[in-house]
């Protein structure tokens, strides 16, 4: 359940802007990485003092500050103060249960979205909140955990290849959004594989565990939907140039991420449709199997009941039962029984009941 | 049913503006509390005479008048007269069965919303109507019952800390809205816990009472939805600056409450999705359990019916039944019976019916 | 079915504007009542000649003409001619199967809506078409039957109390609309009571008649929906000032009726949700009860079948069956039977099948 | 299936504007009727040469050209050429599988809609495509078959009564649309009667044929919906004055047809709701009836099984069974059997199982 | 599953604009065909060197470059470079898992859509991505496979007949779109035939394979929907003149394709409605058949159980059972048995259970 609704109630009644971390606690300290690049400059360091947090005054470089493990309230609050973030933004960064949204504060844009990962073999779908602050010459990203979701972007900056080294902060923000959305497809592919596996089980060997698996899938999709759907609106706003901080060339790239998000949503909805069909198939094949069993068993009973009756008749103790004294009485009765049995089997076969 | 539709019919045919209290009656008298604060001033008193109701003429202070137990028609009517409220507004305050809405009358804004509480262990979901009148320098709040929903706001004003002491009436109204919406999450968490508990019961021990519990949850959600959904529109209007009484800085805060409401709605819809899945699981596992029982019982019957038939055959009284006279006839028949029995059990096992 | 679709086909192929009454015929003659009031004047009379139909030329008074039993085509046609109504409007007044709608013809507004009543104990939901013509200084209302829906408005005018005596024709039209919508809540409360009663029956004693009652309720709701939903749009148009005949102060009142209509629609939809849940509960508890019966019966059979088999064995007529000659053979067999019986009952109990 | 999708594939790959008739072929030749009226003129003739097709140059008269049996490609193509119709319009007239739509080409408006008829006793729902070309002084109508749907309009023109003789081409087009929509109500009434009949059968005697009838109705409604829904948009466009060819007075009339169409759609949706409820009732009452049968049969079996067991006990051949030698043993056993039987019946009755 | 989601994950983490082919690999080389026509010119050749790719500088001719088998990355990249395509466009052409969309880059419009084919007798529904680049004087089309979908357009150009030879690049693009959409109807007709066949099977001989067939159909429709729905928006944009590259006369033609697409969507939705009805019929007739079998079998058992009981009574070994010694005892008992049997059959018949 924690996945659906975090313990937000701890904040009930507190004044707005109260900085309380809402989410799973962790003992690992927050890590703050600063990268400055562009205009021939390249700098990368892990900082500890808040003084290192300010972006370079050189307008040709881009500063990227990444904070892992946002549960350390003081670090987030310190950055918020330095960059003049609105108290509600700092509160939202710490409150790791946000719905994806974008808020434009003029000087900077605040974007919340959710990264998805599925860990290991047991397919544990996990989510973390990613908060992005996009300013004119800087990007600040806050990760709830310390996922490796941004690692490849970091590599590209280090390598200095591609557009990323030549473009502004908006392109960097785009790259981060893109790497988060790219991850959705990995999760969707895993879910696709699970659906495929389930469909085979459905045909070959449906069991109550299949039902639970269908239910689990359905739930994961509900959960995914909550994360992905609202992102559509966020990207739609960015792409349409609602904020002055995203330049026209980057808007083309944002449109591309937007398209990917639509594609992910589309796939999600298709999966939902497929799963609802699977439930019907499951229920129908379970009931079909049971019915087959019941039919055969009932038929066995039905065939033997008349035979038992005949045996019962000749087990009666009447003094005058002429058949009992006939020489061929016993074989005759056995023959009649066999005939009745054969007739019933043939009758059932003709009626296609067997 | 009272929860869904109050006895509005008592008002049928009365002229508009008729002041009739619609709701559960109570014997407790209405309580009117006046707070004045801001600009260095702080005053708090319980008033009884209507003269004390007018806001201070000092434009730098904010006056908050809170009325508990609106069932006392004369008190509400008196305030309405003093503050020049439209007769329909006074009527709506008394008619505690309103759908959340906002109405802008120029001088003041009338906001209706519903507070939710879940009392005690038996999880009784309760609702009360909160009416807010936001004027330039005053806020009047009407509570149907005397819930403690505003207690923490009162504490913050008394402590004089935070923005609330420095801001205007619109920020006070925001704080009241915020504390009502914060309460929704407590209710939603309680519902989340009930869903969790139910899901475990579903797997371990489904019973007709589980079905009733699912039904009860579904109903509570229908009920919640009616209270929360329309609030979205209300806050959307306030946040977009449809009224001149909400200043731009406060609009940012209203947007925050709006986001919380969207989050609550989102969670509600997710709960609904989850519950509809639970009904399927319940029906399927109930029918599964029954089918298992029936299958085993039918199989026992099916195994014994042929054996009984064999016994019946040798219970016939024919004079010439050679087997009866064989020395090993009886053991041979017992052996045949055992063989038939074992064969059938193996056959059923091979077919995976057992 | 008549309730869903009246015999409109009698008009098929006729030119537009053909005056044919479509609806249940009645032998009662039409009644035309004229009321003139305001500006110190009060006049009330039943007229028979069409000459009395014209509104007073005094602009400070309001004339209200009410026609019961619109099935008399000549009366309606006469009024239509005198007031210069469009032929299509007269046709629609007679065609008592209209969907609620508003049409603005500049000089007058034509409003159609449906009044609902539930008669007597058997809860027969009945509907009648109300047509309103709102002019500058007059209101003409046409009732399909002669319901008492406007009686209280008439009393208020006679008493000369409240706004109604001081306001214009638009306020009178509002009062008529309001009294129709107020009636919806009486019908909804009756339906609410039926739902409550059904829910208790569902738990205590579900029977096929319960299903029919659920079905009947569902149908009544479908029917209600058709009457109430389109009214929303009508009132929305009036409230937004789409017509010049409704003054700004009255618009506030119209907004109030609009809110009531939304509330009625909301309640309707909630009822629909509740009823669809009831069908699930019904089907589930019916099948549950049957399954309980079948389970117990099958268990009785299952317990006796092995015992009957044992009796069958010792009923065989083999010459050499040593047990038959034992002194304690019979009691021993009876004991074995009792043991088997007890074992099976305990086994079923442990498995929670009993 | 032909009803859902005509053999459009024969046109696959042909260039646009290819004139191929798509629809059921007929051997009857096309009939072209020309009517000219208005301004004191009245002329009616069946023409064969394309020369007669041009409208009179007198601007005060209206020319109506009606073509039955559009399967004759050359006739349609000839008219298209003479009146300067766009090749795609001519193609669409021949392709009798269009969705209702309106296209404005400046000089003329092209309207496609579908007429519905239900023939004879067996209720065969049939449809034909009606294409209307509305020019300034002429209307051309193309009927797929030679239905009598326009006969009454023709009669009205011949009689020279009503507005139709005094109005322009737009009013004629309106009259044609109106007569098509009027026919929908005849079809809907027939469907209403079928639903009524089915509902009685559902209660009195549900059978598999009832299910097929429900399914057939559902299908007819799907089919009707396809024909009626898009018409709404068409009429909405005409009524809002999107085209200059419809004068303001006629727009009022178009609004009337629009209202009728909304009414028809409303009724359709109500029927759909009712039918979906019927399926639930059907399934429930079928299963209820079967369950009743099974319950009674199972009870008979359950009552006799213990009795048979008692008989089996006293059929055992033990040497020492004291009861067998009692003088009243047999009657006593019979009495015990009767007692067991009575007890079980009473028990079942008390449990309300019988 | 591959049909729903291609292995997009291989691209995860790569910078945008990375040219990686996503789709089924093929060993066949890409084929590039160039056609130039219009203004008296006609040229057709297969080119291999990228130099031949540039459109003729003559503004009166249209150049059409068609690329089959886009899996050859270098060919696509070469064309992209020459025509100045945006890197994201080239990436999307290679990424053959796009949702249909249109993007306007000023100089050219990029359109993605999906062609459908159903191959052979086994009805394998297949899809391929078609990318179109529409420039001022050229069209470039990329086909994922080498389907014959454009063959007829090629023939029309070669024949030099019709508008296509006289019109510009926009008309060529229209023709390509039209031939793709025309193919949808072939697929829909095949699906219509399958539905027809299934419906007959449903009535005559429902089997579990029928259920799988229904499920397969449902899935194909989900799949089709994903391909066809978004195309609607694409064509809507083109038709409304959102891009300057489509001239007004061609917009009329685009509107025609748009209408066809709406028609295809309409048919799809109708098919979906029909299939959901079929599932109900299937489940109901399967359960009906089983119930018939169970009823007959249970009745046979019910008739014989009382008879067996009677036989059991007279099989008891009491010393004093007077009936056993009666001369006509045995025939009398046989008669009683026959009477019970007949009575039960008549009773069941009267109750309509048989």
Structure write-up:
The first copy, chain A, is an alpha+beta fold. Chain A has two domains: 9-284, CorA soluble domain-like (Beta Polymerase, domain 2); 294-350, Methane Monooxygenase Hydroxylase, Chain G, domain 1. Chain A has eight helices and seven strands. Chain A has helices spanning 73-82, 87-94, 151-159, 169-204, 208-239, 248-313, 322-325, 329-350; strands spanning 31-38, 41-46, 62-68, 101-104, 109-119, 124-134, 138-143. In chain A, strand 5 and strand 6 form a beta hairpin. The first copy, chain A, is rod-shaped and about 120 Å long. Chains A and E meet through helix 3, helix 4 and helix 6 of A and helix 5, helix 6, helix 7 and helix 8 of E.
Question: Would you summarize the structure shown here?
Answer:
Chain A has 2 domains: 9-284, CorA soluble domain-like (Beta Polymerase, domain 2, 2-Layer Sandwich); 294-350, Methane Monooxygenase Hydroxylase, Chain G, domain 1 (Up-down Bundle). In chain A, 53% of the residues lie in helices and 15% in strands.
